[in-house]
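Ticket #352: bound-state structure for pyridoxal-5'-phosphate.
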Amino acid sequence: MSLVERLARPEILALEPYSHASWDPTLERLHANENPWPAYGDGTPSGLNRYPEPHPHEVEARLAALYGVRPDQLIAGRGSDEAIDLLTRAFLAAGRDAAIVCPPTFGMYAVATRIQGARIVEVPLRTADWSLDEPALLAAATEDVKLVFLCSPGNPTGCALSKESIERLLGALAGRAFVVVDEAYAEFSSEASFASRLAEFPNLVVLRTLSKAYGLAGARCGALLADAALVALLGRIIPPYSMATPTCDAVLAALAPAGLAEAATRIDLLKGERSRLAQGLAGLALVRHVHPSDANFLYVECMDASVVLARARDAGLLIRDFSRGARTPGAVRITVGTPAQNDRLLEALARP
Ligand SMILES: Cc1ncc(COP(=O)(O)O)c(C=O)c1O
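RESOLUTION: The complex was predicted; output attached.
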């Protein structure tokens, strides 16, 4: 029995997927109960009166090329949020299964798990260096744990997890649980992606997104990379037509050669601004400590977070308050903006 068959919910394995209307762009469509005319104000070339392709094969092929995997090892969804949702729905049975998260971390892992009615097990990162507590993780990985969510580079910490630590965990949990490495911020990191390690670790799942480095947060497009059997299972439960036509068009434009070149330039610019902003912040009386970052944001411990938040707001800038979190006392998370925005923030915080 394969790992997917062993860990998936039996009712999902047995599910008869929805049978969608057939897809043949060479024929005129009188088979999907669409309106024959585009809506008022619809200027799109293909017309939003038509359903998009049931599964966005061209988008998936481009994403697979971008991340260096085979198309059958990737499923695209509405942001990596949808990938997290699909994983919990496929593997976590209400009242029976569990997922491990390592706080402080991205909140959607726990929310999706709880929506599913499954148990969340928290194994906090070590606060000294935001590293994984491997012995505690292994002790927590009981038989009911089907998913372990790791975030690297971490949100909100900004810190990449040790490659060796992730490898050891993948090895120790082989045949027992899927280790999900969320690489939403990987393009800003000097660490190599785990996307190239799928053949080595059948229990590895990698999440990527176009929301950050590729500037498409509003389009909602993310990708899950994994063993083809896992991807095929998720393909049975993702709703048909899940990727809207304007999203597909925006993704294909952004991943064309000119789009990729522009994204690369902007990633470099943001990395430069990240260093400049970190240096500027570190010299301010309001700031206690700026953590090193592999992402497009900085995790900043403040003398008094409420003053930092208020000064930013007065300058017309929103930054994220983490100061009341049990594991993030006094901290804020600052997204690296344009050079002008970063200057404005530094000026506002430097005022006597
Ligand atoms: C670590 C992490 N994973 C996933 C997401 C969700 O991204 P998406 O826009 O692809 O749904 C975010 C968004 O902030 C994130 O920080």
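RESOLUTION NOTES: The two ends are 66 Å apart (CA to CA).
TICKET STATUS: resolved
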